Amino acid sequence: MKLTYQTCCGVDVHKSFLVATIIKTTGGIEPSYQKMRFSTFNNSILEFKHWLLDNDCRDICMESTGKYWIPVFNFLEDEINVTIANLKWVKAVKGNKDDTKDSKWIGDLFRLGLVKGSYIPCKPIRILREYSRYRYKLVSCRSSEKNRYQNALWLTATFFHTTFLLLTGQMDLQSLPCRRLPDERKYMQITLKRNASSATAERLF
Q: What share of the chain is helix, strand, coil (3-state, %, to 5)?
């Protein structure tokens, strides 16, 4: 089988630590292995990065385990080519699995070019994704709370037009119940015009 990388590294990432195995193929058929274990704290990840550079290893592969790989990837991407592999491409043989063997297995597959890398967008796009997803969550939470408040007001028969203005920024007179005094609708129309500008300012977004 054709050799793709002369020097590479397989990384098995966990929540609190990572196990890395550098594989070097210099001349013979059998490669040499060098294994190390590092913590996932920032200073330890930097030590891992320096260890890779000291061993002239600029190609590594690690599986996409949850979100544990993200801080490691962020520290390494500027100087090292990092391949993030889906679990199905680097799954170890059943009954022959532990942290050290996993990193060696990933490295061996990667060395022979048998691992497909997942698409990882550039850093500005990743940051934009995080902001967009967080904003979507905030908007969803706002809408959920708004609906909950309106439902509570409806169930308790508390129909104040100012409350609806503060909650939604607008008021649909047709949606309010018809239990009003004879002149209440006219009063609400006048008040609605007065509060039109202030209602817009009360919007969260």
A: 50, 15, 35
